[in-house]
Amino acid sequence: MAFNVKSSKREQITVLEPESLPFKYLYLRNIDIPVRDGAILKGHLWIPKDAWEGDLKVGTLVEYIPYRTDVTIQRDSIRHPYYAGNGLASLRIDMRGSASSDGVLTDEYLKLEQDDALDAFDYIVKQKWSNGKIGMFGKSWGGFNGLQVAARRHPALKAVISLMSTDDRYSDDVHYRGGCVFASNMLWWGSTMAAYAPRPQDPRVVGDSWKENWKQRIEVAPMVKHWLEHQTRDEYWKHGSICEDYNQVDIPVMLIGGWKDGYTTPVFRMVDKLPHPQSCGIVGPWVHEYPEMATPGPKIGYQQLSLKWFKKWLHDEGEIELPRMTAYMQDPVGIEDSYDYRNGHWVSTNDVKFKKGMELSLGANNELVVAAPAEINYSFSGVESHGLFRGTWCPFGYPGDFPSDQKSEDARCLCFDTEELTESLELLGEPKLTVTLSSDKKLANLSARLVDLYPGKENVLLSWGQLNLTHHKSHEHPEYLQVGEKYTIELNLDVVGVKIEKGHKLRLALSSVDWPQAWPSPETPTLTLTGGKLWLPQVDEAAVVQSPDFGTPSIVRKIKTQVDKPDSRTKTITYDCTTYEWIIKDIADDGEVTLPEFNELSGIYNGACNVNTWKIKENDPLSAYNECQYDYWMGRKEDNWNVRMDTRATMTSDKDNFYLHNKIVAYDNDEIFVEKEWTDTIKRVYN
């Protein structure tokens, strides 16, 4: 069964006053948490007053991320107090190398990161207020390491909520996609961390030693270098990928994803593979955000849901049993309107194999038909301008994030269309494309898009996928293609949950180029397609069960900030007719905010501006160019503490190598403190 959700352009969020919550709580900042090598992590604890001062013992929630609480405090203030005000301790830990914790941050998801978490658990269970049970929650990085730490099987960790995360660091993250260098995201994220990771400790917390530690943080080699040095799925990527052994995560896990997020396919994979019978998945229409705050709507009562989840597993209070998978079936909507709200309905099932579907064959006259696969013969290549209108892979819902009308993209592809649908169609699951093809080059990529053709209106992107064809057997052990040899290739597209209206058509669009999603092959190949079929997953009504009522969203009133400079976003795609060059320029100015009155954080400010540029010349794959500038500043003016980090990263290639250049200039009160550059040549490996 399913329940419908009616459109509400102005969704209401219930704002709770802290004093209205059942438990009075304390907020304690910069608690020292020792770890095994003597380093100190800083924790920030919201805890029921009776637990801190009396004999009440409570379960503890842990959010463990590198983004520093003096920056995320607004986000923290709507969530952690809710848990403390309802009888749990909620501990936000600044990872090693972030905020005022000791050390430096050298890379993502290190074993040391997990070890520190286990040591923090040991610290927690020794506290007089702890009942010995811990839960982890987090989005993105915090969702990743929640799963990874769970696989280390600390006896106190009883449950996890992992939002917008993955089980496979190679196949489903910002570095590689289908074995292709993920050009739209790898350098961008590398430049982001090049500005985030060196942010200094707070002198009010650690004293004069902050400056020496800041220098150490600045001089750490850029993370993007490590990522590009590992172009196949080797041990570097296997570490931290729980898909290597799902059985290690044998506690209940709630997985949350969004149809507009980049990490949704892993939710479907994990609900099938995770061993605990009460692990479950929820996928809404959302971008990369917590679902009580996310767009497009509808939002849900995530905080109430998560509280019930953790109360059950940490306090043995109440009951909560959720279907193995609950997904929001989206109704069609225009691209502009899709930023705000998606009409639709929730569908739940305990059968997560998603075996029901329809098979369409690639036929003559560019048709997608319900028929047995037939021999066909199409030769197609790609143009470097295909992919420019794909939108942001992991968006937060800012203007320009979502894919544009795909007509111009389709014009650059080999396309296969269905006839107009005679009845509506509900798709739920992972589309799978199987093709037989050959290549005239030993290196080749294949891109596939599934598009909904709205009659007389927009061509709306539903799903896409890409594959480095040298990886068609294995991401760990690629093989060069033999020119002219026929291969049977399987390519999975991103999961979908959408209703296709009667009268619409579906389109499959194929290309050997997808910039800037995939860094181009050194030579643009021509592929010859001799057969193919597309499997589309459908809702199995026989397996549908009653969906939960997720309720309405509520948050604790967030602390106030002073907006010194508003944020803004511009994104343009241009073509220079004199140089035959296409340019994407994406400028995200985060503005600047100050915390006017909030404990020792009073007066702290931060701001950022991120400028990303992708360039490529028509018919010249070796002209691909990516530049990312990330400027970040913070401080406390009343203490004369004002720091700034300006970073710049570029990536280019020739037929044999990638070329990375990274630079950071750090300023202390407008004077250069440290200036550091890295220039790296990295061999192309099956790319």
Structure description:
β3 (25-34) and β4 (40-48) form a beta hairpin. The chain is 15% helix and 38% strand. The protein is of the alpha+beta class and 687 residues long. It folds into 3 domains: 22-169 and 239-345, Alpha/Beta hydrolase fold, catalytic domain (Rossmann fold, 3-Layer(aba) Sandwich), CATH 3.40.50.1820; 357-538, Galactose-binding domain-like (Jelly Rolls); 560-683. The longest helix has 15 residues, at 111-125. The strands form 7 sheets. Strands 1, 3, 4, 5, 6, 7, 8, 11, 12, 13, 14 and 27 form a 12-stranded mixed sheet that branches.
Topology record:
Layout (H helix, E strand, L loop, with lengths): L1 E4 L8 E3 L8 E10 L5 E9 H5 L4 E8 L3 H9 L2 H5 L4 E6 L16 H15 L4 E10 L1 H10 L6 E7 L12 E2 L2 E2 L4 H11 L6 H4 L3 H9 L4 H7 L5 H4 L14 E6 L6 H9 L6 E5 L17 H14 L9 E6 L13 E6 L7 E7 L3 E3 L8 E3 L26 H4 L3 E4 L7 E5 L2 E8 L5 E9 L5 E10 L18 E6 L3 E5 L4 E7 L15 E11 L6 E2 L8 E3 L5 E4 L2 E9 L4 E14 L9 E14 L2 E17 L4 E13 L3 E12 L2 E13 L4
Parallel strand pairs: 2-28, 5-6, 5-7, 7-8, 8-11, 11-12, 12-13
Antiparallel strand pairs: 1-14, 3-4, 4-6, 9-10, 13-14, 14-27, 15-16, 15-26, 17-26, 18-25, 19-24, 20-23, 20-26, 21-22, 21-25, 29-31, 30-31, 31-32, 32-33, 33-34, 34-35, 35-36
Pfam family, one: PepX_C
InterPro entries: AB_hydrolase_fold (IPR029058), CocE/Ser_esterase (IPR005674), Galactose-bd-like_sf (IPR008979), Xaa-Pro-like_dom (IPR000383), Xaa-Pro_dipept_C (IPR013736), Xaa-Pro_dipeptidyl-ppase/CocE (IPR050585)
Protein name: Xaa-Pro dipeptidyl-peptidase C-terminal domain-containing protein
